[in-house]
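During the second half of the funding period, the structural biology subgroup turned its attention to how the target accommodates small molecules. The most pressing case was flavin-adenine dinucleotide, which had performed well in the primary screen but for which no bound structure existed. We therefore specified the complex as follows and requested a full 3D prediction, including the ligand pose.
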Amino acid sequence: MTRAAPTTLRPASAKEVRDAVLDTPGRLAISGAGTARRWAGRPAEPDATIDLSGLSGVITHNPGDMTVSVHAGTPVRELQEQLAEHGQRLALDAARIDRGATVGGLVATADAGPSALVYGGMRDLVIGTTTVLADGTMVRSGGHVIKNVAGYDMAKLMHGSYGTFGPLVEVVLRLHPAPKATACIAIDGPVDAAAGHVQRLMASPLEPIAAEWVSGDPGTLLVRLEGGVDTLPVRTGRLLELLGDGAREIGPEGWARHAALTGGTPGQPDPAQVTVAAGPAGTSATAVAGAGIADPAGSGAADPAAGAVVRIGCAPARLAPLLAGLPATAVTAGLATGVATVTVPGAAVAEVHEAVAAAGGTSVLRDRPDALDAPAWGPAPSALALLKAVKTQLDPEARFAAGRFDPWM
Amino acid sequence: MDPRIRSEFVTLLGAADVIDDPIRTRTYECDGLTSSRVVPELVLLPRTADDVAGCVRICARHRIPFVARGAGTGLSGGALPVARGVVIGLNRLNRVLEVDPDNRRAVLEPGVTNSEITAAAAPYGLYYAPDPSSQQVCTIGGNVAENSGGAHCLKYGFTTNHVLSIEVVLPDGSQVTLGGDSAEQQGPDLRGVFLGSEGTLGIVTAVTVRLLRTPEVMRTLLADFPSVAAGGQVVSDIVAAGIVPAAVEMMDALAIEAAEGATGAGYSLDTPAALVVELDGTVEECEEQFAQVKEICDRHGCTRLHVAGSPEERANIWRGRKAAFAAVGRISPDYIVQDGVVPRTRLAEVLERIEEMGVAAGLRVANVFHAGDGNLHPLVLFSAAEGQTERAEHLSSQIAELCVEMGGSLSGEHGIGTDKACSMPAMFGEDDLAVMDRVRAGFDPDHICNPGKLLPTPRLCGEKPGRYRPHPLEEAGLIERL
Ligand SMILES: Cc1cc2nc3c(=O)[nH]c(=O)nc-3n(C[C@H](O)[C@H](O)[C@@H](O)COP(=O)(O)OP(=O)(O)OC[C@H]3O[C@@H](n4cnc5c(N)ncnc54)[C@H](O)[C@@H]3O)c2cc1C
Ligand SMILES: Cc1cc2nc3c(=O)[nH]c(=O)nc-3n(C[C@H](O)[C@H](O)[C@H](O)COP(=O)(O)OP(=O)(O)OC[C@H]3O[C@@H](n4cnc5c(N)ncnc54)[C@H](O)[C@@H]3O)c2cc1C
């Protein structure tokens, strides 16, 4: 059977989103800025796409309460610019995302940056949501107060849903004060040495905002501190002392490379030879850089060696040993959070899922060449039947986001 | 209960752990909301997660409603038994299974008390952040179900921000894990939905929590102000200065009178309002911010500023604050504790409206609350002997709904339970509530898991909110309300 070419609807209000859901029969895809289009399972061909990028802008910002409500299609970057005028921010290091990722998309993909160490991810910053379900029901939960324990926290259900329950149309976020001063401290070394530094750092009272190892030759540990203008230099001094020889303060550009690797442009591994682990025992897992560069536009046939980006999470202390065993060509590793983003040859994705599961962790395929056919998720969670039951309750005809959770459902 | 069903429970748990003696089952007839009581048919006291699953499977097979119970300190009737149902008490699952300092986390059975977590973590310089005032006795299972918070959740967040994973027995008796070893999650955050679900989605049998490093320093001050509004302005200015205190608590004259009378903690009796501000962090940051806070207090006409000079003095300031609830009994024969939230910027306005409403009702209202996150705990004072009960209950509900009208929430930390289910339509539309019910049906299609709680049902809505009666543990001086 041939399908008509999918239509794209671009509603400009919550009501129009609801009309679009009600008036369009069949399977619907939801998109924000499309920056995570290739993440997770491959979406099945929809009958129509609801593009939320027209549903953009701040609805209300209450600076005194440090809350803001926004239309779900609002690019985080634009939101941050507006908040900065009031000395506030959404404490998600999405400032580095220059690709226009939207608030709704970030909630739906359960994303978080390095500062999740202190501020948590989007799940911890969202205090209210409004979502349109498949039957046109508009469901609202939460509100403009950070403390609220009335009813089920529906925002959590949306977090990580990849659009399977329906389009978010409005999101209320809690804000934090923008830091008065920020410092970035770097120290070179392989991941196991970095893990040792992070262990000591976390046992110290220095309160790092982020601690990420970035692969390279031999790799670099980046630590971010935030604080007062007069006091931060003192703390920076204490941190330099704690890390010892080779530690130095660098500019914020240290994070740009980290962001590029996290975003993981598939098929463009780090040009440098990367060494994930070079322990004294010589357990070096040096990968071949440049192997199988794929066409980012994804035209050609799948090159099994082409790079795919996998996001993994496990207990923090297990991360460095886990990474050492992966065929990674580029890595960013939150050694205090246990969350890492790795670029691996496309053919190795299944093996990565297995290794992560064996370490008690979880993994999901992120960016990849279009043609790559690799499993998006690792072993199914024990709560899969429950997840399906909730999905059936909210979207009985499975209209939304078919394919995102393949091979699970 | 059908004796054959009872014997299934006995076969599973042994006769000693299946209670049907009416005198003993009565012990479980209510939680901290002592105005509602229902005697359960049976009380089951499993010792392992598998036993819990076994109990739930028997309930599922016979469609018997069950209610999980931790320490029974809930203040909204969440653990109130249901008629012809069983109570599954979790106090015997009370082992700290693991403290893992390298990964800064602990794995706990649900009956471990909140304070025991910090006690187990302390040798490693770690602690568990959420700190409800009932922490000496309330259980982590109850904390998960209520998404509990405490004075320090302004900076550190609630239970939901500190739980990595939970092992749960679902209402069909199956056992699943929600969440995982890291914050990275797989698919929709079902753990987040479960947190704060008030025992309506299943029973928690193990919890993995994040532990934080004990801060380098803590600085606490007590400041008096010429008006509640001035105190409220100080809170706003502290926040506007980009400072996130560990805690900011406010008390009005009535609350101070009661607390000082009870504890002699050193509060001023002639001040209309007092603030307790606590900062924590590294030495440098704390000192810098502390100086700023003092300056802000001065700017708003602070009449007395007392800085705790020692850990004992700090404990003393908190003792007065934490005793305020129970101490109100000294100045009024009866009172109702309310728990609503308003946007912080509307605090002064709301407090003024509450005062007007009190005057109109001819009743006094004392205020002691978490000012930093707008979580009010107005105490409606009345005398049942003088026939003021109904008026007080009405005023209390009016205050809760006023909070919603101001853009806030019906509950900040005590949950909805049976107590506030009837007020839910004031906060949520019919569609919102219907969708929550659909989510619930996804977990519990047969409606046997703590039925009648959280979401409004016509039966409950015929009942009235209850007035304050001290929890037996409060009377025993073991816990205090905050
Ligand atoms: C190169 C690159 C670098 C990146 N760097 C970072 C980084 O440093 N830090 C960081 O935190 N993130 C980063 N990201 C993450 C990424 O930008 C976001 O996670 C992404 O999801 C943003 O949203 P979007 O609008 O582009 O989503 P889309 O790609 O449009 O959609 C993603 C998923 O969300 C669903 N969805 C989108 N909008 C809605 C909605 N309103 N309601 C319901 N479901 C919806 C879609 O159906 C889809 O399943 C990066 C991504 C890339 C490609
Ligand atoms: C004096 C006093 C002060 C208080 N101060 C605070 C405070 O500062 N902050 C705050 O948030 N709360 C406070 N509370 C309320 C109460 O202590 C908390 O809600 C607490 O988390 C309840 O824990 P519990 O073990 O007593 O649970 P219970 O009262 O036994 O149960 C509460 C709810 O949790 C469910 N439940 C219990 N165990 C489980 C489990 N293992 N699995 C699934 N569901 C379960 C029950 O079914 C019920 O719905 C206070 C109470 C009192 C009496």
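Two results from this model are relevant to the next phase. The CA atoms of residues 8 and 49 of chain A lie 5 Å apart. The domain at 181-367 of chain A is CATH 3.40.462 (Vanillyl-alcohol Oxidase; Chain A, domain 3).
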